[in-house]
Amino acid sequence: GSFGVAAEFDAEGDVSALGFMANGWYDFDTGSPWKPFIGGGVGTARISLNEVSATVAGVSVPLADDEDQVFAYQAGAGIGYELTPTVIVSLGYRFFGTLDPEFTDVDGIPFDAEYRSHNVEVGVRLHF
Question: 48-105 pLDDT, tens per residue?
């Protein structure tokens, strides 16, 4: 038979995402200053792992430093309040996700990851 060995360790480094999206948003007309909205988008994102390393038995071991370009999507909703006919302040939520990026570790072994983010947004919109 065969058996595997599992190890648990702390890792550190940076993960970043740079997205380029085509979006559509819709404001609901409630007949009041309150303006609920929904929307979403599709595009692409470059997901980067930067200098990810693990500490094993007190020694820092490099794991990965790679990037991948993948399909990205987002969806969101929120509420705006019309201060004037041209100024709306808003509070919203946006979920951003991608297909699983594929990376290669420092030993040349490929692995998949997941990238998702949940964002709360506060904004001001100006209408011309």
Answer: 999 999 887 788 889 899 999 999 999 999 999 999 999 999 999 999 999 999 999 9
Q: How many CB atoms lie within 10 A of CB 54?
A: 15
Burial 89-126 (b: 16+ CB within 10 A, else e): ebebebebbbbebebeeeeeeeeeeebeeeeeeeeeee
How many secondary structure helices (H) and strands (E) does the chain include? 0, 7
Neighbours of 5 (CB within 10 A): 4
37, 77 in Cβ contact below 8 A?
yes
Instruction: Find out whether 128 and 116 touch, Cβ atoms under 8 Å.
Output: no
Cα 124 to Cα 84: distance, rounded to the nearest angstrom: 12
| Cα–Cα distances in angstroms (integers) from residue 39 to residues 9, 11, 32, 127, in the given order | 40, 35, 20, 18
Provide, for the chain, the percentages of residues in helix, strand and coil under a 3-state DSSP scheme, each rounded to the nearest 5: 0, 75, 25
Check: CB of residue 98 under 8 Å from CB of residue 68. no
